[in-house]
Write a structure and sequence with these properties.
single chain; alpha+beta; 281 residues
């Protein structure tokens, strides 16, 4: 999911998404191992040498400079330049991780010289850099046994900013594994008593976004809204990322109450930090 952020925009906007985790089991035919003459990775139907190099793809300079960085994993999924969502899928171990429109390619071992992004391109795209947001309810009751699958899916989706509801003591373990796997580039906004309410913690890429301020504001039934003011390092664009986890299945009143509370709370936050709002949950 990608949203284009416009620094000239004066109005707030909201992004609400819902993701269901799908488990995929990939089985290789026994003869594949016997016939393989090139290195194979789990989940691959072809050897790495049979895949095109990511460095040959038209958008590789952008993938290297922005989306994938100096990834260590062997695979990425390239996208066409004119795709509705041109952001590559990065940090992959298996080609089955490609999202819609993605085509697997072999990431150059040790990296490859990235073409510099010209100042003309930067000027043309300063008002439309795509940023991927994700909101994902992790379902706390079985979360302790799913730390690694959760991290796998976050790395596959490659959000720059995410709101993560239903996370308690597992929060630290998820962050530790994320940073072990991807080079210490993830952080949670730490403002407020985030482990004492049903909320939606704000996760963000520290190599791309700078933390300005954050907090948690509780409302009824042990629920709360999280917010974090963040500034993009590449161009100084700032926004308020927010997430909440309202009470479910109790009729319309609790929902309208939550909407009213969230609207008033974020309006007050925006008075102090006059940036567009991204609401997730």
């Amino acid at each position: 999911v990608a949203a284009s952020l416009n620094p000239a925009a004066t109005q707030s906007f909201s992004v609400m998404m819902c993701l269901g985790l799908v488990s995929l089991q990939l089985l290789l035919a026994p003869q594949a191992f016997a016939e393989a003459s090139v290195p194979m990775l789990r989940g691959l139907t072809r050897g790495l040498a049979e895949l095109p190099s990511c460095a040959e793809k038209p958008n590789f300079h952008l993938a290297r400079a922005s989306w994938c960085g100096e990834q260590k994993e062997p695979l990425a999924c390239s996208k066409d330049v004119d795709s509705l969502n041109p952001i590559w899928d990065c940090h992959l171990q298996a080609e089955a991780g490609c999202s819609l429109g993605g085509s697997p390619c072999a990431w150059p071992e040790g990296g490859a010289p990235a073409r510099e992004v010209s100042s003309d391109w930067q000027n043309q795209n300063a008002q439309g850099q795509a940023t991927r947001f994700v909101t994902w309810n992790l379902y706390v009751f079985t979360l302790a046994g799913r730390i690694h699958p959760v991290v796998d899916e976050l790395l596959r989706m490659q959000p720059e900013i995410a709101a993560i509801p239903e996370m308690w003591h597992e929060k630290g373990a998820i962050l530790d594994v994320l940073n072990q796997r991807s080079g210490n580039v993830w952080a949670f906004a730490t403002g407020g008593a985030t482990e004492q309410f049903n909320d939606a913690d704000i996760l963000f890429r520290t190599d791309k976004w700078e933390h300005i301020a954050s907090d948690l504001v509780p409302f009824s039934a042990g629920r709360a809204i999280n917010w974090a003011a963040l500034r993009r390092k590449s161009d100084g664009y700032a926004l308020i990322a927010s997430g909440t986890h309202p009470l479910c299945c109790q009729g319309d009143y609790v929902i309208t109450e939550a909407v009213d509370f969230v609207t008033k709370t974020l309006s007050q936050v925006q008075n102090r930090h006059p940036y567009p709002i991204v609401l997730m949950g």
